[in-house]
Specification:
CATH architecture: 3-Layer(aba) Sandwich
Shape: globular
Number of domains: 1
CATH class: Alpha Beta
Strand order of the largest sheet: 1-2-3
Radius of gyration: 15 Å
Oligomer: single chain
Length: 140
């Protein structure tokens, strides 16, 4: 299972998970967890089009996954799940049925200097399965 948020770190994590799945003849489950951004959450409830927000996020994520898959000559089986939940909790919940959880070292959060983002840290401490944190080559 791989956590995916369209960021470059999550694309690296997806690439790593696809490579591993190919070696093990496994399926990769891509989890896209979404919540409303704080700025949107302050908008009156009845004025939001939740379906449009969800659909736009899912379309962006599916396109990004397709771009990563297009880089490959072989493609393991990939499942995609959109979850309306805090990303860390969605990945922990999803990891109950996984053999391995793969995440990028950091995602789209606002603290670019962090070596490990909050979701990755949460997963390392709470996942029910082994966690692989994929870092950029410059951090290795």
């Amino acid at each position: 299972m791989v956590g995916f948020d369209v960021s470059e770190p999550s694309r690296r994590a997806l690439r790593w998970a696809l490579d591993e799945a190919e070696l093990c003849d496994a399926t990769v489950k891509v989890i896209l967890a979404w919540t409303l951004p704080v700025a949107v959450a302050s908008v009156p409830y009845d004025t939001l089009d939740y379906e449009a927000l969800r659909d736009a996020g899912e379309a962006e994520a599916r396109q990004a996954v397709d771009e990563v898959l297009a880089e490959r000559s072989t493609k393991p089986e990939v499942e995609f799940e959109l979850v309306h939940e805090h990303p860390g909790q969605a990945l922990i919940d999803g990891s109950a049925d996984a053999d391995l959880l793969v995440v990028g070292s950091r995602g789209r959060g606002g603290f670019a200097g962090l070596l490990l983002g909050s979701t990755s840290t949460y997963c390392v401490h709470h996942a029910r399965v082994p966690v692989v944190v994929v870092r950029p080559a410059s951090e290795a």
